[in-house]
Specification:
374 residues, 6-stranded mixed sheet, 4-stranded parallel sheet, binds pyridoxal-5'-phosphate
Length: 374
């Protein structure tokens, strides 16, 4: 069960060092930054790439590094786009198998890790990533160990146990959970943390392909995205670059907007300061667990994507996030998570200060279900 033949190299997102993709890889061996999967896609038309008979993210198999027939899948992705106001759509990721878009990344990353010989899969997680890893580990028949902050809500922990994973609860944040796993490492462990291996981005990039297809070959003008580790932002940006290389689109891009909360906003801070890299946020506090990532290793890639697309970064307060989570759920009937509420609050801010115009076609990401946060 090897990688697809379109995979050529792994290239460091920062220093450009290249490495052979046919072994289990984590980060760049010379600078420690994330690796990108480079694919030889040629000039294929959308009709040659998209297999419309597949009702999941695997419909883009020809542009993915794992063949659909070799994937461990629970039918993830190909989520609905729901119009909630004139020119405003919610991309509803709560419909994924494990209740969040982490399913996309984990389906791909677990498939790749197992293809390349991983023995046991481990990850620190603030919530949804752990549940998704546990589920896809179960689908693949591979043991999973996760470490989570001890104050993670019960539902996230129960979910991991439900799928048979070993769960460690650690005092502190996701960074402390990561440290715990590093200190208790087993020789066959493979760390599947955000951007510390190259394939979760490949799963999440399918959101970029889906927006193209769902907007009939035109991309939206603006995409508002709740940013934690940044996998989805980086993935969509990569997808659009691939689509341009294949000849589907020109150089136009949706303006990307990163949304964080005031209690943990390393990307917003670095964006506003004009810095190349994010700095670790000293005391991260937010109930949006997907956004409680104080030191995203791929922060600099997010910043590049925001700047190249003429996008921006917005921090919302915890109170605003909570109010807007309930408001959007009650107004639409969509199962909005706090991260989705933060996106709605940011959207209203950008509308108020005229960064958005009424003609902009805007996609808001609701990245998961709201039902686990209690
Ligand atoms: C993980 C997560 C995020 C952040 O996703 P990244 O792509 O890593 O930035 C946002 N929302 C939810 C619900 C999440 O689980």
């Amino acid at each position: 069960m090897p990688l697809a033949s379109n995979v050529t190299t792994l290239t460091c997102f920062d220093c450009g060092t290249q490495t052979d993709p046919h072994h289990l890889a984590t980060v760049c061996s010379s600078c420690g930054m994330p690796l990108r999967v480079d694919l030889e896609l040629g000039t294929k038309s959308p009709a040659e790439v998209i297999d419309k008979s597949i009702q999941s993210m695997w419909r883009y198999g020809a542009a993915l590094p794992i063949r659909p027939a070799d994937a461990f899948t629970l039918v993830e992705g190909w989520t609905p786009l729901i119009e909630v106001a004139n020119n405003v759509w919610v991309k509803d990721e709560s419909r994924n198998p494990t209740g969040s878009f982490k399913s996309r990344g984990m389906s791909m990353a677990v498939s790749a890790a197992v293809a390349l010989g991983a023995g046991r899969l481990v990850a620190p997680s603030a919530g949804n990533a752990a549940g998704a890893l546990a589920a896809y580990g179960a689908a693949a028949g591979v043991p999973v160990v996760v470490a989570m902050p001890a104050d993670t809500p019960r539902a996230f922990i129960d979910e991991c146990n439900h799928y048979g994973a070993k769960v460690h609860l650690v005092d502190g944040t996701i960074s402390d959970a990561g440290r715990f796993l590093a200190e208790n490492q087993h020789p066959t462990d493979f760390d599947i943390s955000t951007l510390k291996e190259p394939y979760r981005v490949e799963g999440k990039k399918t959101m970029g392909y889906e927006l193209y297809e769902q907007f009939d070959g035109l991309l939206p003008d603006v995409v508002v995205y709740p940013t934690g580790g940044g996998t989805g932002l980086v993935g969509m940006w990569k997808a659009w670059n691939e689509m341009q290389a294949m000849g589907w689109i020109g150089s136009e891009r949706p303006r990307l907007v990163s949304v964080q909360t005031a209690g943990c906003a390393p990307v917003v801070k670095a964006f506003e300061a004009g810095d190349k890299y994010t700095e670790t946020w000293p005391d991260p506090v937010t109930s949006a667990f997907g956004l409680r990532v104080p030191g995203p290793i791929g922060g600099f890639i997010c910043l590049e994507a925001l700047r190249e697309t003429n996008g921006t970064a917005v921090a919302v307060t915890e109170t605003d996030m909570k109010t807007h989570t309930s408001a959007l759920a009650a107004a639409t009937g969509i199962d909005i998570c706090p991260e989705g509420g933060a996106v709605w609050a940011a959207y209203l801010q950008l509308q108020q200060n005229s960064w958005l115009t009424p003609d902009d076609r805007v996609v808001l990401f609701n990245t998961g279900t709201g039902l686990k946060y209690r």
